[in-house]
Amino acid sequence: MRAMVYRGPYKVRVEEKDIPPIEHPNDAVVKVTMAAICGSDLHLYHGMMPDTRVGMTFGHEFIGVVEQVGSSVEHLKPGDRVMVPFNIFCGSCYFCVRGLYSNCHNVNANATAIGGIYGYSHTCGGYDGGQAEYVRVPFADVGPSIIPDWMDDEDALLLTDALPTGYFGAQLGDIDEGDTVVVFGAGPVGLFAAKSSWLMGAGRVIVIDHLDYRLEKARSFAQAEAFNFTEFDDIVVHLKKATDYLGADVAIDAVGAEADGNFTQHVTSAKLKLQGGSPVALNWAIDSVRKGGTVSVMGAYGPLFSAVKFGDAMNKGLTLRMNQCPVKRQWPRLFEHIQNGYLKPNDIVTHRLPLEHIGEGYHMFSAKLDDCIKPIVVPGAV
Amino acid sequence: MPYTAGEPGRTVPEEVRARIPGWGVDLDPKNPPAFPRERFDPDATGAHWDFPERQEEKWPRERSIEHKFLTPVFGTATPLHGLSGAIRRLAYRRYSEGRAAHWLLLIAGDRVDAVESHLRSLASARPDDPITESGVLSERRHRPIRSRFGRGRADVSHMWMDPVIIVGPWLLAGWLAFSLVKRVVGRRPA
Ligand SMILES: [Zn+2]
Ligand SMILES: [Zn+2]
Fold first, then answer.
1. Contact A246 B2 (CB under 8 A)
2. What is the pTM of this model?
């Protein structure tokens, strides 16, 4: 089969690989029909996530058709069209049974602090991802769901990570009626977090980013107020002024450890590994939320330490809430919202390219060429 | 204004409700979308086992020492090999996830892996190609000049380093090959 393969920092190519076999009785092999490149794939692409091995196939956002199932699979059969949440989880461990699917204890031998994720380095279990023609899906009875007939393929694809994660970010904010919510980052997750904040009753939604085309999307897609932080001497002061010197009630970090920050951050994190990515957005969130407010974090952070302003968080009495999104828990409600027309996930898709061009896709997405917000790759397309 | 006890701007303007289809549908705390905190609901997951059957360990699989045993299911994407494998094995065997040494060794293993794999590729039918693998060809169709000015393009600040990262391994490989040839040639009796 054809698969995207990591060759080292800033280098990927498509090459021939074996079709993955069934390795466990509850595995399925899924033929991928569509995959996405995610902002958090850039952490891998830039070589910032520990134990990212050459030869690995990335891609934790994909949908496809079941090709083959293991002997204990009961709920799926070959031919089923499935959407697969980015978390790999067993459904029966201490954590899964409590709904913490992203924290499953039975799927990641390499670490206990993080669960299993498709195509996300050995730190997340060493599973190949879906930017390929076929992918191994463990616990096929637990993770995947059959795509409803009424659902658009691209919407299903965005339900495997970006939309549920954005929605989860708003949820973690514990938004109260009329709250002012500030979202840092206008990538796919930030846009969905902003949009979801309204559904949870926000009175005001503000989005902060540095790329004008993404801010424009925040205004049109998420109906938010949007500011470019590079136009302000100090974005925190601006936000304080904009909220009558109170601060926002809820701040959402939809950036994570910066996949690509300014020069110093780039050197200390991406190059020298002195920190696991600079938490600029998180520190802005801590600074700009009001005292007693809530900071929600679902941007991607690696396991290495980051310089977070913990003292400020303590002195302000903040509630910090965070996790990787347990995607499947979000699906029932999100399906309803899509059917009711409250959310239209694929409005944010900007690029569709064949798998064979994925090297260019990574560069384009990483450099934010051509106003790229969300690229989708299609195996087999030309 | 925070200097008094009043509630600032808590009433949501009608204009907002009218503008946002679905405004407030998930507002009711008694009807949470997916209860964000822990919830005990063993029947909800589709699992039909207490403890999953164990996947066969076809080669010694590294694991965090914070695990009691190898997890019943694990990834098989890229087994350990070579010098990078030895570094990674050490990181897993010796250090818990709480130790910086664990992660720094893994990062070091990654860099060694990239160089090792690059050298190996030069001896293969399909060597690494610095042009296509860096994806720079996508610049051609996507406004390479305009995107660099006044738009906060993310990679501009460190672009000068990229040739070092991408071309560096090639120079290193060339230098190694050259010194190897020199050594072999030099050893021949004149
Ligand atoms: Zn993602
Ligand atoms: Zn589990």
1. yes
2. 0.90
